[in-house]
Amino acid sequence: MASYNPAVRTRAGSILLTESRMGTARIEFTSMIFGDGVYNSSEDLRLVTEIRGRRQEVGLNSIRALDDESVLLTTLLSNEELEEGYQVRAIGLMARDKENPEKEPVLYSIVTQAIGPDGEERGDFLPTFNGKMPNIINQQFIATVSNSAEVTIVSGGVYASADDLEYVLARLRDHRHRAETVDESTGETTEEVQRRQDRSIAGIKKKIGSNLDKFAAHIADKENPHKVGAHQTLESTGNPVEFEQRRQDEELDTLRETITSLEEQVATLAPKELVATFTASGVFNPANFPEFDLTEIDVFMVGGGGGAAASTTTVNGVGGAGGGTVFAQNVKITQDSYNIVIGAGGVGGSTSANMIITTPTGGGNTSAFGLTTSPATGGPGGRGQIHLGIQAGNPLGGDGRMGQGRRDGTSRAQNPHNGVFYGNGGGGHPWGSGAGSGEGAGGAAGAGNNSNGGNGGVGAGGGAGGIQSSNAPAVTRGGNGGNGIVFIYARRRSVT
Predict the structure, then answer these.
(1) I need a surface site. Which of 98, 320, 348, 432 has the fewest CB within 10 A?
(2) Distance CA 181, CA 65 (A)
(3) In the chain, pLDDT over 70 holds for what percent of residues?
(4) Hey, where are the domains in the chain?
(5) How far apart are CA 423 and CA 413, in angstroms?
(6) Which string of DSSP letters, residue by residue, matches 152-210?
(7) CA dist 85 → 91, 135, 310 (Å)
(8) CA 292 to CA 311: how far, in whole Å?
(9) Kindly report the CA angle at 218 between 137 and 232, in degrees rounded to 5?
């Protein structure tokens, strides 16, 4: 006789059961799936989502309430259309929310075959159909539900309850030929074969019908059918203690699943913390941060700030534009490692003593996780006057106000996790201060004649160089833009 381990309700099944108990779903069992895949004793069957080595899926024949919170489901498994026999190592019960029939059924519960002390497999073996008499397994499954009166099944249509054997009988009769025809494989006439088959079918029908009647009577018998002692029976229900304990264990499992689900929901409300900061190009390896849940992250990136233009004896310099910024939330992590490229800050321009002028360069792009900043599209740098064709809106600076010591660069974007503004523009001459404060501040313009502009902070534009002295002009330089940066944020794993 085949032997199977106790059924284990899956996480998906527990969620559906919880929703049913809350009144937001109605359980509808759809089918049983049979497979020959092997499961190790160390596996957590609650996490299984599909039957391994799936061989057959059979519709359900009948459903019967055992009590208020458990039902008996029945189906008949036949090898009539089976081209190759197999060991039935696992059976899965499929279910769905009847209120949402468009959703795919989920694996509600799973049982695996028992293994003997010598490693022998104790599940059923369904052989290949021999073309004459099909092998039929009357498979039953007990499932815990919230309200057995509310649970339904989807009829499989393969066999149907009391009509099962009548169907098989009709199929066999369809194959009859003339009575005098001889079966070459057995030497019997067709009439002899038909009589033998009728006797076999009648015997099978009687045996199955008798067993089903006995089982139904057994389930309905609340008068201690196992003849156990009084201390082994609960007076409140009349059920054996073992049965009640098993049901309570299942309810505890459901409660644990519900608590786990709530913990996961609470975890999504926890603030994300800084995981890593990149100020130079490198590689991000999620495995190096096991204390964080890195299935998804927030990323704040800043490109390199633009270099500032120097001034001449007559023309005021232009502050560099701030680096472009990108803020992305809930970025999915699917790889073992990610390359991080940090955009370099632009180089400030210069003006020599004999008026040889070099043009500043823009900042480089920062890229990571498939995201890239735009070149120096942060806050525009301040400007004094139009200088070397660098007009308002040019990535190297511009679109700021006139100098006059004002905070000409404009803040581009705020990192919501640390509150700092990045991508600020540099100040224009004369003596304009760059926008922002702290590490993302734009560079200030040079203070005084023949002075250099200040370098921009992280991802910020450089400040314009001070104006050259008309009496003794010297080399002046615009400030360099600051290098870009990447911040990575995620939630810590919950500690249980």
Answers:
(1) 98
(2) 49
(3) 63
(4) 8-242, 271-496
(5) 7
(6) EE-B-SSS-GGGHHHHHHHHHHHT---TT-B-TTT--BHHHHHHHHHHHHHHHHHHHHH
(7) 16, 11, 85
(8) 50
(9) 120
